Amino acid sequence: MEVLFFGGSFNPPHLGHRHVIETISKSYPNDLLYICPNYVSPLKETGKEFRANEIWELCLSEFKSFLSEKVILWDEEIKKPNISYTIDSLHLLQNLHPNSKISLVIGEDNLGSFDQWKSFREILNLVKMVVVVRRETPYPNEVLIPDFFPKSKIIVLANPVLPISSTEIRKIFYGNLVTEYLLPRTKELALKFLNAKDKGGSN
């Protein structure tokens, strides 16, 4: 059994993330998928609308139908108050699964900034594959892969494009929050957390 790691800010989790999870689960049905929300991302240190425990609750709500023995919501990064680095989580996964090969799942939008990730060359040496989920380029059009990626380690999935992002969703939180991007329970929780923040309350 191999292991796939899918990390991110999940601020908030939404349809696009569910699409990634569903795509990976169908493409790699015999492998373990670790979904790993973080609280402090090296490239996104500002703009957190939700506390760590709130992000965790939102992920539990939004991903509930996918979670199983093979699809695991992992709290390794969300419990850290400081910056989380993918390389550290991958090393820990190696220790947890010493006989498995590990692959990294990223969105197409992460390709251009991947060389800014801590120890990105070590990541590329460590993982079996970098599995790219399309966010911008519809199949069968070719996704542009930066030169620093070894072509032998890249797999680009042929999934349909779902371009919605957490940033776009946050922009409409205080206006007309469209339900199709979030499950009803997740929307309810998100608005509850945001309203408490506006009032200076706590959860």
Structure description:
The structure is a single chain. The protein is an alpha/beta fold. The chain has a single domain, classed as HUPs (Rossmann fold, 3-Layer(aba) Sandwich). It contains six helices and six strands; from the N terminus they run βαβαβαβαββαα. β2 (32-37), α2 (52-62) and β3 form a beta-alpha-beta unit. The relative contact order is 0.19. The mean pLDDT is 89.
Offer a concise description of the structure.
With 203 residues, the chain is an alpha/beta fold. It has helices spanning 15-27, 52-62, 86-96, 120-126, 166-171, 184-198, and strands at residues 3-8, 32-37, 71-73, 102-107, 130-133, 154-156. It is globular and about 50 Å long.
Q: Per DSSP, what share of the residues sits in E-state strands of 2 or more residues?
A: 5-15%
Strand count, sense and barrel status of the largest sheet are:
6 strands, parallel
* Lateral strand order in the biggest sheet: 3-2-1-4-5-6
Radius of gyration: 17 Å
Break the fold down into its secondary structure elements and pairings.
Elements: E1 3-8, H1 15-27, E2 32-37, H2 52-62, E3 71-73, H3 86-96, E4 102-107, H4 120-126, E5 130-133, E6 154-156, H5 166-171, H6 184-198
Parallel strand pairs: 1-2, 1-4, 2-3, 4-5, 5-6
Helix pairs in contact: 2-6
